[in-house]
Amino acid sequence: MKALVDSGAQATIMSPACAEQCNIMRLVDKRFAGVARGVGTAKIIGRVHSTILQVGSKHLHCALTVMEGKAVDLLLGLDILKGHQATIDLARNKLIIQGEEVEFLGESDIPKEAEDALHDEPTVPGPGGTTIGARSGAVTAPSTSTSNPSGSSAAANPGPQPVAPPVPARAPAAAAQRTFPESDINTLLALGVDRQAAINALQATDGNVEYAAGLLYDN
Predict the structure, then answer these.
(1) Residue 138 lies inside a defined structural domain of this protein
(2) What rounded mean pLDDT belongs to the chain?
(3) DSSP conformational letter for 190
(4) Domain region containing 33
């Protein structure tokens, strides 16, 4: 099957149809079922705690969340990439995992649904100037482009540019003391992440549950 490699996703996600095709729906722990609330909602069928994923000739142990509303059948998240010490080699256009080299698909081979999700996805504003994909939940950093609408080059205006004053950083002690409602933490735990990951996501989004969910899964 074709899989999307997403190093920005915390967890590996599989669609119910793909889980049925792979005959692993019987392994789904439905105690982890629920509704993932972020930018929109997605139904979580449950979690497979242990199964085998073949990548090239390698057979890798993995856990995954079965969730509806995916643009692709299988999304390989950071849990698998980091757990098996994978390398995304863009110079050679390959995913290297435990010594196995798997070449990325060419643009003509990418399923149209996945391509639309990557290139034609609407976004909504996120915390700190970020943007969040309305379907995937992917978080994009603020733009640092210096282009201007007139189209003139920077050399046409060589005068000194004003420098913004430094913004004082938040005191680490204040961040460490921040607490969040148990109901918000439990909402994120339903995504299949551990408690510390849920708290870290809330900390990073200033307590906004919807944005925190967007950081923890691809919606």
Answers:
(1) no
(2) 74
(3) T
(4) 3-107
Percent of the chain exceeding pLDDT 70 equals: 65
In a domain, 129, yes or no: no
Phi, psi of 51 (to 5 degrees): -155, 180
* CATH number of the structural domain spanning residue 87: 2.40.70.10
Identify the segments of the chain with pLDDT beneath 50: 135, 144-177, 218-219
Q: What is the value of pTM for the model shown?
A: 0.51
Q: Is 184 marked active-site?
A: no
Q: How far apart are the first and last CA of the chain?
A: 21
Spot the catalytic one: 6, 79, 184, 218: 6
Domain count, the chain: 1
Question: Considering the domain boundaries, does residue 23 fall inside one?
Answer: yes
Q: What is the pLDDT of residue 128?
A: 62
Q: How many helices (H) and strands (E) does the chain have?
A: 7, 12
Question: What CA–CA distance (Å, rounded) separates 12 from 111?
Answer: 19
d(CA 209, CA 184): 6
